Amino acid sequence: MIETKLQTFLPAIQSLDITKPLTKQDLLTDAFSIASENELSMYYSPHNEFINDQAKLIIVGITPGWHQMKVAFEQIKQYLAFKRNLSLDHILVETKKAASFSGTMRKNLIDMLDQIRISQVLHIPDAASLFDVNRDLIHTTSVIKYPVFFQNKNYTGHKPKVQQSPLLTTYAYGNFVDELNQIKSSALVIPLGRMVEEILQHILKSRNLTKHIYLFGFPHPSGANGHRIRQFNQNKPIFSSIIHKWERNF
User: Fold this and answer.
1) What gap in Å lies between CA 245 and CA 90, rounded to an integer?
2) Which tens digit of pLDDT belongs to each residue from 176-204?
3) What is the pTM of this model?
């Protein structure tokens, strides 16, 4: 399913210069601004518009970072310029494929997913195919679906806390909940990192999201997370138990 915010920003996207790499000066502008609050700034990015309501696996970050935003805009601009025979819906799907958890983060994520036998449960060759030929099985998203920056740096969920910001609370406890409820099947939800996990735990106490199964304890796959491997190895037995429960739902 496609949401429609793209139409608002389409003219500004089409005016971007595709002959050079996009920079923050190109994208972190009023033309793509959604909202601001104190030292927080939220900007549009096209790669979280598509919602795969048939997904069996949902992977959730805190908010897209600058790298994902840049990849998304470069991807959609190329499609709009050179593949005009494609529908906007198709273009948004391809943009999501290219940008979601792109870079080193995706590589680390795929490695961890392979170790907990996600591919065996889904009957696919490997976790990498979830970002390619088996993309129909996965939905990638963020608690705050559009890129947020704090003092012009990637927002990490720490300062301010989501609950301390009316802007972020609206997205995390409103839009994000609505998005999860659109997924039709009982999916395995993997929150990436402690901040996302805390928000989901809080939502589960007050909202009805019981149809999904939640893999808590999964570390954030960023290379900057020095505790990633140790935390992952410690929690492997817990992951096996949760995945076994999920597998029984197939």
Assistant:
1) 34
2) 999 999 998 889 999 999 999 999 999 99
3) 0.93
pLDDT in tens, 141-178: 999 999 999 999 999 998 899 999 999 999 999 999 99
Q: What is the per-residue DSSP string for the chain? A: -B-STHHHHHHHHHTS-TTS---HHHHSSGGGEEEEETTEEEE--GGG-B--TT-SEEEEESS--HHHHHHHHHHHHHHHHH-TTS-HHHHHHHHHHHHTT-THHHHHHHHHHHHTTHHHHHT-S-GGGGGTTTGGGEEEEESS-S-EEETTEE--SSSS-GGG-HHHHHIIIIIHHHHHHH--S-PEEEE-SHHHHHHHHHHHHHS--TTSEE-TTPPP--TT-TTHHHHHHHHHHHHHHHHHHHHTT-
Q: Encoding tokens for residue 117?
A: 């036998």
- Residues 112-132: b if buried by 16+ CB within 10 A, e if exposed: bbeebebbebbeeeebbbbbe
Structure tokens at 65: 């970072």
Backbone angles phi, psi at 226, to 5 degrees: -70, -20
Structure token pair of residue 145: 């679906």
Structure confidence by residue, pLDDT tens digits, 216-233: 999 998 877 778 899 999
Q: What does each C-alpha distance from 115 to 26, 45, 229 come to in angstroms?
A: 39, 31, 12
33-37/40-43 β-pairing: antiparallel
The answer to whether residues 141 and 179 touch, using CB atoms and an 8 Å cutoff, is yes
Cα–Cα distance for residue pair 3/130, rounded to 1 Å = 22
